[in-house]
Amino acid sequence: MTQQNETASVVIVGGGVAGLTLGTFLLRSGIHCTILEKHSREHVENRQRAGSLDASGVRTLRQWGIEEVVEEISTGDSADPGMPLLVDGQKRLWKMDGHGEDEADSAFCPQQVLVRNLIKLFLRDGGDLRFESEDISLEGVETDSPTVRYRAPDGSAKVISCDFIAGSDGYHGVSRTVIPEDVLKCDTHEFGYAWLTILAEVPADPLAVMAVHSRGFAAQITRGPNASRLYLQCPLTDSVGQWPDERIWAELETRFGAPPAVRGPIVSKQVVPLRGVVFSPMSHGRLYLVGDAAHLISPMSAEGMSLALHDAEALARAVVKHVDEGDSSLLKSYSDTCLDYIWERQAAAVWMTDTMHDSGDASYRGEFLRKVARANLETLTQQRTAAQS
Ligand SMILES: Cc1cc2nc3c(=O)[nH]c(=O)nc-3n(C[C@H](O)[C@H](O)[C@H](O)COP(=O)(O)OP(=O)(O)OC[C@H]3O[C@@H](n4cnc5c(N)ncnc54)[C@H](O)[C@@H]3O)c2cc1C
Predict the structure, then answer these.
(1) Ligand 1 pocket check for 14: Cβ under 6 Å
(2) Which atom of ligand 1 is nearest to the CA of 197?
(3) Using CA atoms, how far apart are residues 276 and 297, in angstroms rounded to an integer?
(4) CA nearest to 12, candidates 140, 164, 176, 119
(5) Does the residue 243 lie in any domain?
(6) Rounded distance, CA 115 to CA 305, Å?
(7) For 376, which of 70, 250, 284, 355 could close a Cys bridge (C-beta 3.0–4.6 Å)?
(8) Across 24-33, 44-53, 160-169, 348-357, least confident range
(9) Looking at the domain assignment, is residue 160 inside a domain?
């Protein structure tokens, strides 16, 4: 097997939202980077996951002049009174706080659409993105010239020497594993329940609706003109086999207090435990963790992509400062800077997840917390009748 040696300023492991935005920010700052992605282009462009990008994420893309990658199904509107929230079948309106920003900036944009557009933009800018890069291994991250080895699609072994490695290969990636166990700390919070997440070929009208009910939380969120993500809170022990299609539609009807506007084919189902996870530090030597490789946030807050963008921007600015000014202060503070923001967002996500779930099915956390969550729900919602909205 032949081996070819190359160089790059930054090797980015993983071509998801975090890796692609970091690559774009660096490329547009004149810094040579190579993105190594394990899967094929077709696979990553069709992988369905998130569906909304919060105001902070949209603003980051706008600041870098690449807001064109957000292909909105619809944005919020400053005149929009909020998202419908059905509490025991009664319609309320929930205005997300937008963490101090104008929430009108948030956008419904399926993650696979964002990823597809980021790939197109990066390649159009002349970026170096290598799909089907397998068996990636990181070496010498504690030295000044780390290397990344991988196997190219033609089977050849490749080595790239670089100044920095960005580990943006998601929660199950390999980058984080090179940080010694006695250095890397993991803080985890398990919420104690799961979401049955369902992809169905039905339009969502309105684009997002949530329900709090004594049988548990439920939601329907758009994923395109003829696609929706449906969510049903369920016990951690539930399996997909316990949820035939008929049971899903009946349960949605009960929790929403009315039949779903349209029923249609269900194309996938998955049971996802709700948890928050934070790894620290987010850097070790010349390796920097970005996005889900460093943290998971409850999907209730819909901020995973936005946190990935926050990390990507922080790392891009740090690398640019190092290269342009020989100043590595931002690289040194990268982990602390990101962790401060991540813990702020984790706190908000835990509050929102507890409020939306504890206020419904009391069997998980008891009647006392149900009443506390109901009181919190009052401060979140504006009581209006459907006729007024
Ligand atoms: C049910 C659910 C709903 C969600 N809803 C939302 C939402 O509405 N809004 C939101 O903002 N977030 C949401 N999220 C979270 C969001 O999907 C993630 O936070 C986001 O994908 C993180 O991006 P990333 O680039 O860090 O990681 P990923 O998207 O996981 O990308 C990592 C990339 O690295 C690649 N890779 C993995 N291993 C290797 C390897 N060894 N070598 C090379 N490449 C590798 C992968 O193929 C992938 O392309 C949701 C998550 C879930 C589970």
Answers:
(1) yes
(2) 1
(3) 5
(4) 164
(5) no
(6) 11
(7) 355
(8) 44-53
(9) yes
Strands 90-94 and 381-382: antiparallel
Residue 63 lies in a domain: yes
Rounded Cα–Cα distance for residues 212 and 255 (Å): 7
The reply to whether ligand 1 has any atom less than 6 angstroms from the CB of 299 is yes
Pocket mutation for ligand 1, best pick of 22, 58, 169, 272 (most atoms within 8 Å of C-beta):
169
Q: What is the CATH number of the domain that holds 63?
A: 3.50.50.60
pLDDT tens by residue, 330-370: 999 999 999 999 999 999 999 999 999 999 999 999 999 99
Assigned domain for 93 exists: no
Domain residues for the domain of 341 are 3-81+103-187+276-351
* Residue of minimum CA distance from atom 4 in ligand 1: 50
pLDDT of 111: 92
**Buried/exposed 67-79: b ≥16 CB within 10 Å, e otherwise:** eebbeebebbeee
Residues paired with 328 in a beta bridge: none
Closest atom of ligand 1 to CA, residue 51: 8
Tally the domains of the chain: 1
User: With a 6 A CB cut-off, is 23 part of the ligand 1 pocket?
Assistant: no
pLDDT confidence tier of residue 389, bands split at 50, 70 and 90: very low
